[in-house]
Amino acid sequence: MLISLILGVASFSFSFAGFGYGLIAVPLLALILPIKLAVAIQFPLTFPLFFINTYRYGHRISWTEIKPFFLGAAIAVLFGAFSFHWFSEIVMKRTLAMFTVISILTARYSMGEKFLHRIAETVPGGAFLGVLSGWFMGAYTAGGPPAVIYAAAKFPDTEKAKGMLSVYFLLVGLGLLVLFLFNGVLSLNTLKQSVPHFPAVIFGFLLGDIFQKKVSRKGYMRGVHLLLFLAAILLSFSN
Fold this sequence. Notes:
Layout: H1 2-17, H2 21-29, H3 35-42, H4 46-57, H5 63-83, H6 89-107, H7 110-121, H8 123-140, H9 144-154, H10 158-183, H11 188-194, H12 198-212, H13 217-237
Helix pairs in contact: 1-2, 1-12, 2-3, 3-11, 4-10, 5-8, 6-7, 6-9, 6-13, 7-8, 7-9, 8-9, 9-10
Transmembrane segments: 6-30, 37-57, 69-88, 132-153, 165-188, 219-237
Subcellular location: Cell membrane
GO cellular component, one term: plasma membrane
């Protein structure tokens, strides 16, 4: 029951903001389950959410709009996957947390929001955020915040932002699926443990969808910034 509740809250956040499922699910599940099992139980249930949002919002974006970010991420994720032993994980995660907090504070002001939008609109700016996201995704599976900052800054239309994030997380998820199958995190047994929680995930997703339709762009951005701030806290204190 508690596992279903956690996954329902996580899917609510994803449906509302376009991200945040793993951010919420893994740390909370890890309080009651071994971390490896926590990752394994929640992970298969992400794919229906990614596919739904990609189907609903993915057509609203074009490859030309997001090409710098995706190319930067694709190149950096390969280096990140092999470079985690080059740097202290704690220092790197806290650096990402600091970058996230600074970006949130900047975006809270109209001038700062316009500045981030101009950065995201440029090829170098988009590529930089893509490299940052890809690097942390490959090294520590923690590349979500730069991707969210990019999507929120580049697309004033929340549905386009969700479309970009859904496509990105779906592609990253497929890569992680191969990795988790290879290293034994995922198995037929863990899949069987995931399936009973699927109704709670769908219920949370539908509830989040209803809620996000009732809030303005300003309310949506407040929710995004709150989740990003939570991500920064978790990054700062994770080992």
